[in-house]
Each structure stands twice: as C-alpha cells, then as structure tokens.
Specification:
Keywords: 4Fe-4S, Glutamine amidotransferase, Glycosyltransferase, Iron, Iron-sulfur, Magnesium, Metal-binding, Purine biosynthesis, Transferase. This protein is α+β, with helices and mostly antiparallel strands and about 450 residues long. Helix content is about 30%, strand content about 25%. The strands form six sheets. A seven-stranded antiparallel β-sheet has the order 3-2-4-1-10-9-11. It has a six-stranded antiparallel β-sheet with strand order 5-6-7-8-12-13, covered by helices on one side. Helix 11 packs across helix 13. The structure holds guanosine-5'-monophosphate, iron/sulfur cluster (SF4) and magnesium ion.
Length: about 450
Amino acid sequence: CGIFGIWGHTNAAQLTYYGLHALQHRGQEGAGIVSTDGEALRALKGEGMVSEVFTPEKLEKITGTAAIGHVRYATAGGSGIENVQPLLFNSTTGSLAISHNGNLVNATQLKGHLERQGSIFQTTSDTEVLAHLIKRSGYESFEEKAKNALSLLKGAFACLVLTEEAMFVALDPNGLRPLSVGKMGDAWVVASETCAFDIVGAEFVHSVEPGEFLIINDDGMRKERFAYPEERSICTMEYVYFSRPDSDIDGINIHSARKRLGKQLAKEVHIEADVVTGVPDSSISAAIGFSEQSGIPYELGLIKNRYVGRTFIQPSQEMRERGVKMKLSPVRQVVNGKRVVMVDDSIVRGTTSRRIVALLKEAGATEVHVVISSPPIKNPCFYGIDISTSGELIAANNTVEEMREIIGADSLTFLSVDGMVQNIGRTDPGSKCGHCLACFTGEYPTNIYPDTVLPHEK
Ligand code: 5GP
Ligand code: SF4
Ligand code: MG
C-alpha cells in the first residue's frame, strides 16, 4: 500500500490526489482520501485506480486544509469497499481517520481481546484494531491514547492518523516500511515514497525513524516516540522491486541501487550471450547494470503494454498467466537468433519467468539465460508484501536446477544475499545492515505468533 498526508494547505485534497497518483504502483485495488477543515472529517473512497475513484467534481466536495490518503494493495483482509482506506470513525468525542501501510502480526490477538471487551469490527482489515485501541485507551489526551495504542501493535506499520486538530505519523519500531516527511512552504507532507514529493513540489526533510511519533498541527511539527527503536529492518523488496526508481529511501536512490544489483549479478555469474534485456518496468535498472558490467549490449527485448495492471495482484493463477501474456511482448528483431540474458527482479511463483522464457523462445531466441537481481524467496512475508504461503513459492519447494527446468531457461542465476545487501548500500549497524531479509533467510525481525495471519488467508 501507499500512504500520503498533508497538513496546512488550502488544496489539501487535490494535492493528496496527486500524491496518491505518484504512489499508484503501490496498490491498485482501491484508493481513498479523508480531509478536514478543522470541524469534521470527510471521506471519498472507492475500488480501483486513483484516476477512477476521484473526479474533479468529487474532489471539490472534500474541502479542508489537511488530508490523508491511501492506495490499497490487498494483503491482510479481503477486498471490498469496507476495507478501502483511510478508515474513518466518526464519534462525538472526536473523529479519526487512519491510513496504514504494512501488516500487523498480532492483529488476531488484539482483535480477540477487543471483541471480548465489546468492540464490534466493521472490516476484516488489521488496521481497524488501531482505531479501537486508541478509543479504548484510558489516557486523557489523544496524543497519549495514540502512543499507547501504537505501542501494542507488532509487525509492520507506517501510519497516518488524522483528527480535526492534528495529523499524527508513526513508524513501527523495526522501520519495516519507508516513510518520509517533506515541506511545501508552510505545509507539511508525509509519504511512503519521495516520488510523491516531487509531483506536488514538496522538498524532502527527513525519513521517519523507527518507533517515532510525529505530531503535526498548526503550531508546526513535534517529534516524540511511542517505542524504542529495535534493529532496523527495512523491507529489502522495497529496494529490489516495490518502490519507484525515482524514489530515495534513506538517501539511497532506488534506480541506482537496482543498477548496482545488476552489476553485482554480472560479477557473480559469467554468461556468454549476445543481448541483455530487462522485464519492464521494475527490472530495467538491474538489466542496465548487468549490461554495463558484463559488456553485453542492453537491448529492448521486451515491451510492456502499460494499460494492464500488475500481474502479481491478479487473484487467480489463470488470470495471472493471461495477465503476463497481455502485458509483455517480445521485440522479435532484437531477440531472433540471439542468446538472450533476461534480467528480472524476483521469482515468486515463477509465472512471469516461465511465460517470458517461452515468449522469447517463440520469438526466435536461441538461448535464454534468466538472472534474478534478488536471492530465492523461500519464506512468506507477514509484513504486507504479497509473498504468501510457502506452497505457492517456487523456491520453497524446488532447487535452483529444478526451478530452471520448470521455467524452461538455459540457465538460472540468483543474486547472493550478501551481494544484494552490500550493493544496496545501507550502512546501519548489525550484520543485516538495516534490512529485513526474512523472505530469503527465514529470519523474521519480529515475533511471529501461531495465529499470525498470512496475507490472503483472511
Ligand atoms: P512470479 O511471476 O514469479 O510469481 O512473480 C515475480 C514477478 O512479479 C517479478 O517480475 C516481479 O517484478 C513481479 N511482482 C509483482 N508484485 C510483486 C511482489 O509483491 N513481490 C515480488 N517479489 N514480485 C512482484
Ligand atoms: Fe520485505 Fe521480504 Fe521482509 Fe516481507 S519478508 S518485509 S517482502 S524483505
Ligand atoms: Mg517484474
């Protein structure tokens, strides 16, 4: 998912729309904005893409000088309009709205606890527990209530909470998801990715730190914390696949990091080939890096039909297969009679690689060597990226040689864990340099409970 918030601007909802548009790659299943004029909170939400949900006429109705927004990528919780965020709770003792990116690992426990106390949940989203915890907290001020509630959450959460009086910003103690703060004149903006600042003309100020709690209101911004930071564990897939190439996470540009991953791959494997091609869009940077390092020319061997959504997000396997076919086409002139290196960022179920190898061979490629700019994904993700059950993960059940055979490639190479971590370039203390590597290594940065719900199991 992607989140965006703004405080102190007369066009708050309009700017949130632009911000969400820049974050569209983070979720295409639903989008919403909640704005406030200091008196009430108003919501506009719908299923589908940002441009489908919001029209200029509708946006004009949610006036105000502050707003938070969300683009939804369904992981925990089913699809359906009730799960589209921001979740809005009206109350005579003060309304609130929440945008959440990530996935809580103790949502089932918290929900059971709250239900026994009389809470009734309206959604199947893990995010709703935060609202109940805030409202039921015994503390006096909203700030203290929110901090107390946040301290009970476990897992991944980059959150924005909006009330009539303030916008609150929080990041989980491991810092699993990216979250940045920017400024636009006197207005404050917060976004999952810095590419959203560029589109609204805001300047990056700083990243939100793990465990931090920011209070933004008409007096400015105040930094507090709801928890001590734990070992930094930012999602590595944000660098490898999820974030946009023009975003920076903690000062590291995503395109540049991916290019270094491609270069490192070319150092780890030697392949005799005629052309290098990347799977658009997320693997182009790595393919350019591989080409530069190996000396094999980079070519546009595959083109993407940009009017088809991300294949991964299609619910059924059949739809996913068709999705790949509609989405990618080989450039026959480039690959015919050639030995092709095909770079992709990751293999999850193996659908994309298998289809592309077949497409390239049908178009006349004599050999197809698949190189992947991340290590094999062997474990499910509990933190909000849709790498679900082990049964679906091709690398959890097959050796690299078996995978090569399944996808029909002439060779298959994955990047090493060390090669990946060192070339992304973070310098946090600890052996993992600030990364979550759980889907590769099985070492989860938080507790995982017996009743922790995997994405798509709810
Ligand atoms: P597969 O086709 O092997 O199941 O999935 C890998 C492909 O899906 C890659 O091309 C990658 O760019 C894309 N992809 C889409 N969404 C995701 C995601 O959430 N995680 C990962 N690792 N890859 C994804
Ligand atoms: Fe990211 Fe993998 Fe960690 Fe999930 S398990 S947060 S996908 S690095
Ligand atoms: Mg891809």
